Amino acid sequence: MKVKGILFGLIAFVLSACSDEVKVENMSGYYPMNIGTTWNYEYTSYFTTYDSAGKFQQLSHSVEQQTTVITKDTVVNGIVLRQFVTTLATLSGPVHEVFYYRQDTEGLKEYGYSVDRGSWTDVGIIDSTSQAVKQSFLPHQKAKTTTTNNLYMYPQPQLLFAYPLSVNSEWYPYSKESGNRKQVVEKDTLQIGGKTYPCFKIETTETTEYEYYYEWVSTAGILKIESQTVMNDVNPGDSTYGQSKEHVVKIAKSLH
Known about the structure:
Elements lengths: L37 E13 L5 E21 L2 E12 L2 E12 L2 E10 L4 E3 L7 H5 L7 E3 L6 E11 L7 E2 L9 E12 L2 E11 L4 E9 L2 E12 L10 E13 L1
Antiparallel strand pairs: 1-2, 1-14, 2-3, 3-4, 4-5, 5-6, 5-8, 6-7, 9-10, 10-11, 11-12, 12-13, 13-14
């Protein structure tokens, strides 16, 4: 459902060489939220395997294109959410991800999402499940369902970016108990489409999934993500495999 009549004020921010802080005065805030905003990304994955003695075995990589578009407003449980649709072009066909965001003076929040991979859909916490089932997963963990194109809501919104952003500011997107924490580690600049964008480099510490996870975010959106995951005992019992690492770089090539 598209909701008309939503007012978005002017973006008020300070981002200069003498200031690390971005001020947020209204719902428009820091992150771009205009319908029609589009980001085109290049998504590169490097996959390395090692044997049980730590000796290098194989390196492979893939390069794919990804596009994210803010499409419309959707009302879910009486809350107006902005819909971000991401399409990843893969060799096995397109993957469509839909995320539902809302921005206020506290920050940018994710309320739910769906990922259509054809016969399988990775989902967040299913809103219709019992409280006992909800408590059995952390909000950022995923369950599986054979139903596609459904919307799944978190028990509570996840705080992706906490305002005001400033160097050394930190927050917990889920809870302290989750072990997931974000921190702005430094100011940086990136060259995208011939333009220079001042941005904040944000580190996410994840106790289980990532060895490291960095985001470069600016008033133009997320411009870059770089992460690495490590998996031990790829084939348990097979001495030829001991560990694998996946290094992923997602960088914006154009935006409008």
